[in-house]
Amino acid sequence: MKTAKKPTERNRLVVLSVLSAVFSVFFVLLLMSYQIVQGAELNEQTHQMTSSKLPIKAARGDIVDCNGVAFAENKAGFNIVFQYAFLPRSQQNEIIRELVELCEENGVEWYDPLPITRTGTPQFLNEQEKEIATLKKKLELNVYATAENCMYYLLDTFNIEGYDDETARKIAGVRYGMVISDFSINNNQYVFAQDVPIEFILKIKEMSHQFPGVDIVEEDIRSYPNGDLLPHVVGTIGAMYAEEYEENYKELGYKMNSQVGRFGIEKVMETTLHGVDGVRAVEQNKRGDVISEEVTQAPQSGDKVVLTVDAAFQRKVKEALEEHIAWLRSRPNGKGNTVKAGSVVVLDVKTGGVLAMVNYPSFDINNYFSDYTALLNDKNNPLFNRATDGLYRPGSTFKTAVAVGGLEEGIINPNSTVNCQHTYYYYDILPNNQFRPTCLGWHGQTNVSKALTVSCNIFFYDVGRRLGIDKMNEYAGLLGLGEETGLEIPSKKGALSGPARSESLGSTWFQGNVVQAAIGQMDTSVTPLQLAIQAMTLANKGTRYKAHIIKEVRSYDDKEVLSSTDPEIASQFEIHPQNYQAIVEGMIGAAEKVGGSYSLSNLGYQVAIKTGSPQVDNNTTNSALIGFAPVDNPEIAVGVMLEEGENANYLMRRILDAYYSTHGKNSAYGVKGEAGEGSGEENDDTSPGESENPALGSDSQPE
């Protein structure tokens, strides 16, 4: 017999059944709502989910000196950026105007690549040919378009209306920057201002409601802790142009908004320093909320570039050149007081590595962009790398090449003499000759050693004439003059005098021009770097190394040497021992003539130099020097050029003292504002034919 269920159990079953029915109905209705009522909306939301691949910027590699002292490194900093997805199109001009005004009030620079003046009638900026061509191409204007034409099209294209001319120009500069950086949905971040002070960042954050689409990002910022030491060589980075992206960087995986090297080591070693950006995959809904993110590719930091330059030595040579020029300018009636500029290059004799490369005037690379207009308009052109690109007549420093050629070709021997009686009469063999070049002295019977010591023009007129222009240039080339230097950054080749050179310059080569060329005049042009290479090759008895300024490349963490620069012979010939000895004796003699505070005779080792006073025109001369030391076992070779200066030989002592006080010492020695040595220039020790330069007549010749 079955047992009847109790009433309580029956009630429970009823309640459970009802609840199950209610929940079933609820979920059925909810499912119907999702699929039927809200189906279209949810389907739209699903399709509006966006997936983005955002770059993770790789840390740029450092540039350091041979001891690890930083020339270029990274520091944490803040950038003001525009986010494409959130920047209201209709408000862009007004947002830019407010930001620019705020920047001006707080002394903050913003990125403005427009090559047009910011005030007054629109004019193209000087020496911005490439940038101007890019502007015209972007605006689809012909090559004859003026700055005013370009401004008109910019204002029209970007609907910049209702502003005064100066404000409109500033807005146009930013809008143009957005264009050349390809600011778009595919390249959704534009850097408006870089490395902004924290006080300004806080102000922007407080006013964030006024700046939709404007964001603050913390990134590695390029920093130049010794920015005044080697600016022409180190270079800087900046935004790339769209054309550069397509031509050079797209295939390398760069992003359109990447910062790239603009010149110097930053440019030539760009791919080494840049590293490889990482990738972050981000999913967002239509409201912009991040649903998920994942690092799909980790960034790889750039490698470290180690230079051959010693920062401490560079600092001291820089101070020596600056103080010498200041001293020359301080002499109201002294020769060389109109000196405009100068350059010093010091090479490692045994490798060709650059130990110091100094230009005056110069600049601080940290202020390159902010001071660019002023630097560009400076009459003495501090942006110009005179060491590598300045072309000058070598003057009497060239006589060493003639001496080598004459001796090695057997035209003379160490004991051969030429009788110097102030005037060279050889060309009187020609009818009605009026060409009688002169010397600075009356030296009598003079051999090659004495001729180098006293810088006798008559001796080198005669040897150069007998040697001939082709052989003269052959030996000059072997010493590195008029030849490629091998340096990693661009450097000028220069040129040597001769019939072809004269023709290229639109002039005629005459028979007597060879004697002018023999003393470093005529159309010969060389760089200070080539002067140092000439000195290095003499010190090496005919072996010329390619100049180089990159010592090695190391991994970012400094644990591994990835590549190194080995000494490379560019050319080699033998200077026979007796000939070498005769040349060096003459150069030692020139060094021993330097007295007073700059004496080269009391160092404990011998120094070899040859000075020159190359003529620029009838009223202007430069001052040049080549030299090496110690003579018995040469370590450094020096090239100096002073524009409208004097007493380049005075710098040799300062350079040698600087070298031996820094070489092999603590890496931080002398860097960042160490007090310089006193110039001691109060002792104006001069020597006939060297520091004292008589007025040059039309037929007289410079040293």
From TrEMBL:
Q: Where is this region: Disordered?
A: 667-703
Query: Which segments constitute the Penicillin-binding protein dimerisation domain?
Result: 56-293
Q: Where in the cell is it found?
A: Cell membrane; Membrane
- Kindly list the biological process annotations in GO that this record carries: cell wall organization; peptidoglycan biosynthetic process; regulation of cell shape
Q: Name one Pfam family in it.
A: PBP_dimer
The residue range of the signal peptide is none
Q: Which InterPro entries match?
A: Beta-lactam/transpept (IPR050515), Beta-lactam/transpept-like (IPR012338), PBP_dimer (IPR005311), PBP_dimer_sf (IPR036138), PCN-bd_Tpept (IPR001460)
Which of UniProt's keywords are assigned here? Cell membrane, Cell shape, Cell wall biogenesis/degradation, Membrane, Peptidoglycan synthesis, Transmembrane, Transmembrane helix
Q: Would the keyword tRNA processing be found if you checked this record's keyword annotation?
A: no
Return the protein name. Answer: Penicillin-binding protein 2
